[in-house]
Amino acid sequence: MHEIPTVEGIPVVNLGASEQLRVSDVDKTSLQIAEDAVGTAPARWRLRIAAAWWRSLQYTGMALHFLAPKRPPNPSFTKTISSTISKSKGEFTLQFYTPDGYEKAAESGRKFPAVVNFHGGGFTIGSGTDDARFARFVLEKCNAVFVSADYRMSPENPFPVAVEDSADAILYLIHAGPNLHIDPMKLAVSGFSAGGNLAITSTLCLADHVKVLRESGNPVPDHRIRAAASWYPVVDYTRPRALKRATSVRPDKTLPDTLTSLFDASYLHPPSLGLANPYLSPVKATDEQLAAALPETVIIYTCEWDMLMQEGKEFARRLERPPIGRNVRYKMIAGVPHAWDKAPDPTKPAEFSEELYRECCGHLGEAFERA
Fold first, then answer.
1. What is the total count of domains within the chain?
2. What distance in Å separates the CA atoms of residue 74 and residue 359, rounded to the nearest whole number?
3. What's the CA angle centered on 274, arms 268 and 275, to 5 degrees?
4. Quick check: 279 and 17 in contact, CB under 8 A?
5. Of 112, 130, 119, 16, which is closest to residue 75 (Cα–Cα)?
6. Is the peptide bond before 160 cis (omega within 30 degrees of 0)?
7. Are 40 and 264 in contact (CB under 8 A)?
8. 63: domain range?
9. In Å, how far from its chain's centre is CA 63?
10. Which of 119, 245, 280, 315 could potentially form a cystine with 130 if both were Cys, beta carbons 3.0 to 4.6 Å apart?
11. pLDDT digits (tens, 9 = 90+) for 309-347
12. Which of 16, 24, 10 is nearest to 290 (CA)?
C-alpha cells in the first residue's frame, strides 16, 4: 500500500485541476482562457480592496435580510478544518445548524442526514451563514443537520480553491460524520449562485479524489450523496457575460457589470486558466464524469430575469436525458432576478422564497428516505 499523508485522519492527495479533468468535446470553447473573459485584469491588490468593500455591503444587506420574520436560526457550533485536497494549504470553517433531537443523539445513538451547503457571492463575497433562512427549512422539514461551508474566497484564493474546499467539506463529513451524529450514507449538497456551481463541481472533484485514493490503496469510508440542490447556478464560463446579459428576457434586471467583472477577475486566475475546465464550467464535463459523480436526485432552480437562466435550464435538461438519466427536479421562478430570495427587506421574506425552500426540502427529504 502506498503511504499517503493525512490531515485529521483524512488522506491527502494533491492533484492539479488539469491532471484530474477531461474536457468532453474539442471545440472552440475548450480553447477559451480566463483572459478572454476578463481582459486585462486589475492588479490583485486592487481586487482585494474592491472585494473588501463589496463584502461590507453584503454584510449590511444580509443583516437586514435576517431581520424579516420568522428570524432564521444561528449556527449551533462551528468546526475549523484543514484543507486536504487543495495545493493551496489552509483552513476554513464549517457552520453547523442542528435539528430538534440532536442534543440527545449521543444518548440515543441516532444519526441524522446532513445537507452540505455552499453560499453565493461570485466566489468573492458572502458567508456561510447567508443561507440561514434555507437552513431553517432543512432543519424543520428534513430533520437534517445543515452544514454551511465558509470556503476560501477569491481574489485571495482563486479557482480551484473554492471547489476543492467544497469537496473537502463533504470529505470531512464522510470521515467525521459518525462522531458528529451524522449518517454518511445520507448526505446531500446545496448551494446558491456561485454555491450552486459548487454543489455540482464539488461532486466532480470529490469523485476524482475518492477514485485516486482508492486506487492508491487508501479507501474512503462508505458514503452516499443522495441529492444536489442548485439554486440559480453559473455552470458555463465559456459563454461570455455580455452574451448572457443580452439574451436575458430582462437585461436591466441582471447583475451589474461592475459586480460580475469583479467576480470574474477575482476567480478566473491566472489569465491562462481554461474556461472549459469542468470544475469551472460543469456543462463541459463528459457524460461519463457527470454520471459517475452526480447523485440520483438533482434539483435546479433558475430565475426568469437572470442572465444565468438559460444555461441552468439547458444543463438540467441534459442531466435528465440518457446516458446521465438523473431524477431532475427543475423549476424556473417567474418574474424574479438573480438571488431574489436574499433581498435586504427587513419586513418580510422575499416573495415565493419560503414556499420554494419548503418544496426543495420536500425533494431532499424524499431522497433521504429512498432506499
1. 1
2. 22
3. 65
4. yes
5. 130
6. yes
7. no
8. 6-369
9. 22
10. 119
11. 999 999 999 999 999 999 999 999 999 999 999 999 999
12. 24
